[in-house]
Amino acid sequence: MGRKDSTVNQTEILGQIRNLMSKTDVDYTDEQLEKLASLVVLLCKWNNALNLTAIREPDKIVVLHILDSAVISPLIRDKNNIADVGTGAGFPGLVLAILNPDKKFTLIDSIAKKLSFVRTAMTSLGLKNVTIINDRCENIVPEERFECILSRAFAPLCKIVEWCENLIAESGVFICMKANLEDNELNDLPKNAQIESIIDLRVPSLDANRKAVILKLH
């Protein structure tokens, strides 16, 4: 759909992904790394036409989208039915679906043009474990509530809980990825939200404070 970007070299992208992923605790196969590299190329092409993300350079997409999403994978090892709310162009959901083909992912966003890219990526990469919902979280009545709700740079924690309370299973968890976590954001959580843990996320080649806030409702 977008015009071809001749500066995107998939072999170089694959090498960068392989090098950085080797510095994480994430399990992966060579085939999965190749799919991640293909995702970067696809995003670069579509980004020209649809302005899906402000991050345009392939090497920065690898760090700020692929690796930043991948490092959450160890936290969902015991989850099977997972929603990615406010997925945008499919991060972290597409990356995690590639790395965890045995799990079901539902990618949710209210912006149709971004989900059109997600749909194309699903087809191009042969992802059978992904479904998409084009709607606002608070409007959705799922057939089955989710064991895990992921969010990445989506909204304040209190809003995520408010908007997604109808989506989470009784024993489910929220995993909220945060770049800058302030005390007031934690203090503003509703009384039915309990902080299980706050985990430091280390993203290779990224000098930034990344955390995953794990929440449960009671």
TrEMBL record:
Family from the record: Belongs to the methyltransferase superfamily. RNA methyltransferase RsmG family.
Keyword Methyltransferase found: yes
Binding residue positions for S-adenosyl-L-methionine: G86, F91, C137, E138, R152
EC number of this enzyme: 2.1.1.170
Protein name per the record: Ribosomal RNA small subunit methyltransferase G
Compartments (UniProt record): Cytoplasm
The keyword DNA damage belongs to this UniProt entry's keyword annotation: no
Any one of the GO CC terms: cytosol
